Amino acid sequence: MKEIVLAGGCFWGVEEYFSRIPGVIETKVGYANGTVENPTYEQVKTSTTGHVEAVYIQYNENEINLKEILNKYWEIIDPTILNRQGPDIGSQYRTGIYYINKEDKEIILQSRNEEQKKYDKPIVTEIEPLKTFYPAEEYHQKYLKKNPNGYCHIKL
User: In which element (H, E) is residue 85 found?
Assistant: First the structure.
């Protein structure tokens, strides 16, 4: 199994979107790459912890590869907007690709460079190693499965 962490605005929709993709084994929402240990949603939403709402994705590389995951990711975000996706505004809603395996970095950079050809403005999506990931509170996990009519900025 391979793993990657992606941020694309509110994590509820990103998680639900990726959970529906064949080959994705597990998704988990959480807070990535900030400075506060074990942050709460109340802390993260203030944009003062450095964390981003993100989704941990575990996938079976025999069914879907990282390039395919990234192609699907680019479809649901606007990578040229800083600290915002849809109506969600703040640094916690920035876009980011946080890799766990160093060998994934080159695939990610190639994917970003290919995606950049579609835009006049520069892509501002962060590409960094995953430094920290704290799972979000239980009520955020699989939120749109529990609340089918819940808020989502992504067309599912």
Answer: strand 84-85
The pLDDT tens digits for 47-73 are: 999 999 999 999 999 999 999 999 999
Distance between CA atoms of residues 6 and 146, nearest Å: 21
Task: Report whether 96 contacts 39 (CB < 8 A).
Answer: no
CATH number at residue 105: 3.30.1060.10
Would you say residue 62 lies in a domain?
yes
Beta-sheet strands, E only, within 45-125: 52-59, 84-85, 88-89, 95-99
- Catalytic site includes residue 10: yes
For residue 154, being part of any structural domain is answered with no
Q: Is residue 67 part of a domain?
A: yes
Out of 4, 5, 6, 10, the active site residue is 10
Q: Which amino acid is at 117?
A: K
Distance of alpha carbon 9 from alpha carbon 119, whole angstroms: 19
Taking phi over 0 as left and psi of -120 to 50 as alpha, with beta for the rest, 112 belongs to: alpha
Q: What's the pTM value of the predicted model, to 2 decimals? A: 0.97
List, for residues 27-39, the tens digit of each pLDDT value.
Answer: 999 999 999 999 9
The token duo for 147 is 């609340």
In a domain, 151, yes or no: no
